[in-house]
Write a structure and sequence with these properties.
The protein has two helices and 33 strands. It is mainly beta. The strands form eight sheets. It has a five-stranded mixed β-sheet with strand order 1-27-28-29-30, with no helix packed on it.
Length: 426
């Protein structure tokens, strides 16, 4: 009996270890492996009272780009001086040590209307806002000047590039493009083309245009891929509102009109058959329900909130079990609250101030919030009440992005530094 009990316990331990290892995952593009800001991993939730100790911490220059992970490397974008000019640069780091492996210039880092006076609040625009994508040993970037580029992840050498403005009549926007490239299957999706080619899909291997269409003017929003009612689709958030298209052809599946003013930055949030969208600058928040109509899909508004009640300025919320968790409020540095919203009704379940325009990641039943001041805060994903699980100050500088979770580690960065923190279960 003792032997059998020992064997059972050993088998259970091995199974648990294997399950934990299987749950570990790369974070290959903006908002993670499933385009929804969620990690499949289990992480440590009982953080030391003295705070999380970095595995590594490295100086970084201006940028609101998040960190992506894969193949033992980490990638992000920074603003650096290259050959006497301020440029956006794609940087590759050793994910285990933070050591820089290569840096590839991407073009001018000068943001129209984005604080180029160098004031303390804006510091020359604060650098690139886009996040790279990693797939099949290649890194994909979309610059503020709308150049889509594919590089070898091993050395940063260019494989192909497409200047959307020059080759597809692209029209940039105030503060310039902040969208990240989105990869699904063999395709890379971006917005920014001109009339009849506003939405674009490229073959990720050779840069060939697979389809182009629509006349929507672009925003700073990154598109998402999701399956709704069994239909795989790419959802763009344009100046006309939400537009969902078939990934393979670009055929429009449904539209949801939504007002535009000044800037729209968050990505659409899919919560079952509900899609949530929001913008600051006096716009507010809305949600639509997707339903079947004959052989097609239809979007119907189910609720809306004015901007003084609910508005996501910069960061994209996450969805868990029918509830939306995100940072609301415009440019309230260090003050903007984390809010929980019922996706079906728009009811605000709770609101907790003190975060500023940082970012949210869903992991292990919790919302991992990176505040604009560099605090990592773990909050239980429950509509019952705000329940803070853990907190650690990890970065100096401004953090207008979301943390990444990969292989038992949190990767986070600011306009001054980046860090890797161990939250693995042992």
């Amino acid at each position: 009996m003792a032997t059998n009990a020992f064997s059972f316990a050993l088998s259970a331990a091995v199974a648990a270890a294997l399950a934990g290892k299987a749950a570990a995952a790369d974070w290959p593009q903006f908002r993670g492996p499933n385009h929804d800001g969620a990690s499949p991993e289990k992480i440590l939730t009982a953080w030391p009272a003295t705070g999380l100790k970095p595995i590594w911490k490295q100086p970084m220059t201006d940028g609101f780009s998040s960190i992506i992970l894969g193949g033992g490397k980490a990638f992000t974008l920074e603003a650096r001086e290259v050959d006497g000019a301020n440029q956006e640069v794609c940087v590759a780091l050793d994910a285990n040590t933070g050591r820089e492996l290569w840096a590839a210039p991407m073009g001018a880092a000068h943001y129209d209307g984005g604080g180029n006076s160098g004031t303390p609040d804006n510091n020359g625009g604060d650098g690139p806002r886009s996040t790279p994508a990693l797939d099949g040993g290649k890194v994909y970037t979309y610059s503020s000047r709308m150049v889509l580029k594919c590089m070898d992840a091993a050395n940063g050498k260019q494989i192909w590039a497409c200047d959307i403005k020059n080759e597809h009549a692209g029209s940039n926007i105030h503060w310039e493009s902040a969208a990240s490239p989105l990869i699904e299957g063999d395709l890379v999706f971006v917005a920014g083309g001109g009339p009849g080619q506003a939405l674009l899909a490229f073959n990720k291997t050779d840069g060939r245009v697979v389809w182009q269409g629509q006349d929507d003017k672009m925003t700073q929003s990154t598109p998402v891929v999701a399956t709704i009612l069994g239909v795989r689709q790419v959802i763009f958030f344009t100046q006309r509102g939400l537009v969902s298209v078939a990934p393979a052809t670009g055929a429009v599946l449904w539209r949801f009109p939504f007002q535009f003013k000044t800037a729209t930055a968050m990505s659409p949030v899919v919560c079952g058959d509900i899609v949530y969208c929001s913008a600051a600058y006096g716009i507010g928040t809305g949600a639509c329900k997707i339903s079947r109509t004959g052989d097609g899909l239809t979007a119907t508004q189910i609720w809306s909130k004015p901007a003084n009640v609910l508005a996501n300025h910069w960061s994209t919320p996450v969805c868990s079990q029918g509830f939306i968790y995100g940072i609301s409020g415009q440019a309230k540095f260090g003050k903007a609250p984390l809010v929980c919203v019922n996706a079906a009704t728009g009811q605000i379940m709770w609101s907790q101030p003190g975060f500023g325009p940082g970012g949210c990641t869903l992991v292990n039943g919790c919302v991992l919030v990176l505040s604009d001041a560099g605090d990592l805060v773990l909050v239980k994903a429950t509509p019952a009440a705000y329940q803070e699980v853990a907190r650690s100050h990890v970065l100096a500088g401004k953090c207008w992005n979301a943390a990444s979770v990969s292989n038992g580690r949190i990767y986070a960065r600011s306009t001054r530094e980046g860090a890797s923190l161990d939250v693995s279960l042992r």
